[in-house]
Amino acid sequence: MLGIVFALLFYAATAILVIGVAAKIRTYARVPAPLKIPTTPAPKTGFGVVLRMAREVIFFESLFKSNKWIWVFAWMFHMALWLVLIRHLRYFTQPVWWWVQLAQPFGTYAAFAMIAGLAGLWARRVLVERIRYISNPSDHLMLALLVGIGASGAATRFVAHTDIVAVKTYMLGLMRLSVGDLPADPILLVHLFLVAVLMIVFPISKLLHAPGVFFSPSRNQIDNPREKRHLAPWAAKLEG
Q1: What is the pTM of this model?
Q2: Is 162 within the bounds of a domain?
Q3: What CA–CA distances, in Å, run from 214 to 45, 48, 182, 209?
Q4: Is residue 1 part of a domain?
Q5: How far apart are CA 137 and CA 127, in angstroms?
Q6: What's the pLDDT at 82?
Q7: Based on C-alpha coordinates, what's the Rg of the chain?
Q8: Is 140 within the bounds of a domain?
Q9: How far is 153 from 163, CA to CA, in rounded Å?
Q10: What is the pLDDT of residue 229?
Q11: Residue 31 belongs to some domain of the structure
Q12: pLDDT in the model for residue 133
């Protein structure tokens, strides 16, 4: 029964995540950008825009320039999160890919860096007055959810060991639409439940900045207003 309940939960959460994010991306792509507003100094070629977006997504370039200590915690959290996600791919692949195996030792301790980064970002929302003023309860709840996921995940490794072989068998079964037995480990169940909650709320949360950054006109536009007139599609129809 436990396996069936969590199977239904994860099937529903996956559907909500995929459909919700796809719908948001479709909305972002359809919103017109009537103005040429790249933040200068901006690249003057398409390849330059690709490099700029890569620096923004990988190194958080604009945040580094604006606030160094926030950048430290934000970059720490996001890079640790990537390691954790890569490490968890071992539960969904058989045989495990070589680069996932390579990340295992680093991903094991990345949860602590992830929690430390979240703690710094959470302290910013409490201690910095201007940030505290614009923070909503949902901002704190989202941070609490992420901390809960990181802490419960680390606990399954360092506090109460979980039968990872049984967990992998269960996850591989879900991918084949076959529901198996899930270990009745309280910490594991809390961890999986919080992950499912995150998947469900992701499409309606501020975490959508993950795909949204690629649609930011201040980042993805070429700085060529003198060489080429920028005309939004809807404006072109009016002129026609």
Answers
A1: 0.91
A2: yes
A3: 16, 14, 38, 9
A4: no
A5: 15
A6: 96
A7: 21
A8: yes
A9: 13
A10: 79
A11: no
A12: 95
| Structural tokens at position 25 | 């991306």
Cβ neighbours of residue 121 under 8 Å, at least 6 residues apart?
A: 70, 73, 74, 77, 143
User: Tell me, what's the pLDDT at 240?
Assistant: 58
Terminus-to-terminus CA distance in the chain, angstroms? 63
**Backbone φ/ψ region at 39: left (φ over 0), alpha (ψ -120 to 50), beta:** beta
Place of tokens 């933040």: 39
Number of domains the chain contains:
1
Structural domain that includes position 176: 46-216
3-state secondary structure the chain: CHHHHHHHHHHHHHHHHHHHHHHHHHHHHHCCCCCCCCCCCCCCCHHHHHHHHHHHHHHCHHHHHHCHHHHHHHHHHHHHHHHHHHHHHHHCCCCCCHHHHHHHHHHHHHHHHHHHHHHHHHHHHHHCHHHHHHCCHHHHHHHHHHHHHHHHHHHHHHCCCCCHHHHHHHHHHHHCCCCCCCCCCHHHHHHHHHHHHHHHHHHHCHHHHHHHHHHCHHHHCCCCCCCCCCCCHHHHHHHC
Residue 235's Cβ-side half-sphere holds a number of Cα atoms within 13 Å equal to: 9
Q: What is the pLDDT of residue 36?
A: 87
CB 92 within 8 A of CB 172: yes
Lookup: tokens for 213: 């950054």
Contacts of residue 48, Cβ cutoff 8 Å, sequence gap at least 6: 222
Mean pLDDT by 10 residues, the chain (240 residues): 94 98 95 86 94 96 94 97 96 94 92 96 95 94 97 93 93 94 94 98 94 93 85 70
N residues, the chain? 240
The CATH number that applies at residue 126 is: 1.20.950.20
